[in-house]
Design a protein that fits this description.
single chain, 551 residues, six-stranded antiparallel sheet, six-stranded mixed sheet, DNA damage, ATP binding, DNA_recomb/repair_RecN, DNA repair protein RecN, nucleotide-binding
């Protein structure tokens, strides 16, 4: 619960310290005195965004601190989840510079506004006149049902299952789209693969064929050249080999007289051997060279086919064409694999759907089990606050589709008068009736959800007299279970408070300040008497104020 609120340098407030009671706290004051300023400051430590300039003195920053006693509210897991230090008395601080820059802290650890909001939602519920429109929303109506039904764990489980279901459905749809696209390309891909398979591509084939083509095209010239070379080497009268043999004979004849003769003779013998080898290889090569027009035609056509495929599929060479064919084969193969994956994902979706629907049904059943209780308790509260003929109907139906709150559809229907057919609340309830309905609903929800603190911000529009007194009794009853802070203009409600704060303006030489003070017993009597009769209350008003406080 909120133990203390400190406000420094904010709007019309230079310095303000408020220590709250753990029961019913009342805040009163003239219109424009600064009650909304205090609520605005409180909103900032609860995670509201900074809009506009708030600083009282532009020479220093604005600081707002809330001291919360959280020892009885099972919040340690939330602190662990956000990596925050847990303290039984937790301090939330918001600092705003003159330029509007903001920082937030929880127990001196800097946090984001998102973290601040997630924490504040577990600490305080603020109910204002504007909040009465909440009751028309399906999310709020589910909140009422789930709070009373104690559905938090079931809803958490449902949302986990729903997330898994949606993830599985999204994966299945994505894969089916990929398969549809692959199927559209399948015929083309298979045609290409068949065409490439028929050709039977091999690495380096083009280079080999090009070399063979060159040889076949010049076979006659090659054969003539080889025969001429053979003739010159060993067959003509003055052949190279014959000349070398003659030289060999002459060197042998003079080698005994020539010191270098043996060496020269050895080298010449080596050349004769090499020439013989060359002549033999030329003969062998000449025998292998044939003029083969059929083979030349085949090679030419084969190269033409390969060149055409390279050009057709816009690749650089046959190597890339082979890679291209392999990639298409992989796509065709993966399509079969994808079909198996579709079967697996379809099974996953079915399992998630079954599990999600089972939990959703549990949530729905628990909601159904408390419909009569909610109707009875809200109608009883409405009777206490001057609406004896009020009727609340809750329509709860199921749909096949999952949504964020389960498989249910909910609609609160209301009638304030006898003979009036229940309709959606916003269509038939006046402002004062709507405020009382919301008070009854919030009272029920607050008791069920065990929030530390609830704040009623001027929800007394359109009520007075005995009804206002009954509204105060409802707040007082609620304060037995939790801390209640009520900002009100009605003395009947103000008289129920355990601690009463008065907000007022104070004029100084150069500016106006907003102040707040906790009223002592006699000061409370005077303040409530003023609320009853005006600025100068008489004895009757004072006596009436005492009677209201005495209850």
């Amino acid at each position: 619960m909120l133990r203390k609120l400190l406000i420094r340098n904010y709007a019309l407030i230079d310095s303000l310290d408020i220590e709250f009671d753990d029961k019913l706290n009342i805040i009163t004051g003239e219109t424009g005195a600064g009650k909304s300023i205090i609520m605005g400051a409180l909103g900032l430590i609860l995670g509201n965004r900074v809009e506009g300039k708030y600083v009282f003195n532009e020479g220093s920053k604005c600081i707002i601190e809330g001291y919360f006693d959280i020892r009885n509210y099972a919040l340690k897991d939330l602190f662990d989840e956000q990596d925050l230090d847990y303290e039984a008395e937790t301090i939330i601080r918001r600092e705003i510079s003159a330029e509007g820059k903001s920082r937030a802290f929880v127990n001196d650890s800097p946090v984001t506004l998102q973290v601040l909001k997630s924490l504040s939602e577990r600490l305080i519920d603020i109910h204002s006149q504007q909040a009465t429109t909440q009751i028309n929303t399906e999310d709020f109506q589910f909140l009422v049902l789930d709070s009373v039904a104690n559905n938090a764990d079931n809803l958490s489980q449902y949302k986990t299952q729903l997330k898994g279901y949606k993830t599985a459905v999204a994966a299945l749809r994505k894969l089916e789209e990929q398969i549809a696209q692959s199927n559209a390309e399948l015929d083309y891909n298979q045609f290409v693969v068949n065409e490439l398979d028929a050709v039977q591509l091999t690495e380096g084939e083009v280079e080999e064929l090009e070399a063979e083509q060159l040889q076949l095209e010049n076979a006659e010239d090659i054969k003539r050249g080889l025969l001429s070379s053979i003739h010159l080497l060993e067959e003509s009268e003055q052949s190279v080999l014959q000349s070398l043999r003659d030289t060999q004979h002459e060197l042998q004849r003079i080698s005994n007289f020539l010191p270098a003769g043996d060496d020269l003779l050895a080298r010449l013998n080596s050349n004769i051997i090499e020439m013989k080898d060359i002549a033999a290889e030329l003969v062998q090569q000449e025998q292998t060279i044939n003029v083969d027009e059929e083979r030349l035609q085949f090679v030419t056509e084969r190269l033409s086919t390969l060149y055409s495929l390279v050009q057709k599929y816009r690749v650089a060479d046959v190597s890339e064409l082979i890679v291209f064919g392999d990639s298409l084969r992989e796509k065709i193969k993966s399509l079969n694999d994808q079909e198996e994956e579709v079967a697996r994902l379809t099974k996953d979706v079915a399992q998630y759907e079954k599990a999600t629907r089972e939990v959703a049904q549990i949530v729905s059943d628990k909601r159904k089990s408390v419909l009569a209780q909610i109707k009875e308790e809200i109608e009883q509260t409405l009777q206490k606050v001057g609406m004896p003929n009020a009727v609340l109907q809750i329509e709860l139906t199921q749909s096949e589709q999952f949504h964020s709150q389960g498989i249910d559809k909910v609609n609160f229907l209301f009638s304030a008068n006898k003979g009036q057919t229940p309709q959606p609340i916003h269509k038939v309830a006046s402002g004062g009736e709507l405020s009382r309905v919301m008070l009854a609903v919030k009272s029920l929800v607050a008791r069920s959800s065990a929030l530390p603190t609830i704040i009623f911000d001027e929800i007394d529009t359109g009520i007075s007299g005995e009804v206002a007194l009954q509204v105060g009794d409802v707040m007082d009853t609620l304060a037995a279970h939790m801390q209640v802070i009520a900002i009100t203009h009605l003395p009947q409600i103000a008289s129920k408070g355990k601690r009463h704060f008065k907000v007022y303006k104070e004029d100084q030489a150069d500016r106006t300040l907003s102040r707040i003070e906790a009223l002592a017993s006699d000061e409370r009597i005077v303040e409530i008497a003023k609320m009853l009769s005006g600025a100068n209350p008489g004895d009757a008003a004072l006596q009436h104020a005492k009677e209201l406080i005495a209850g």
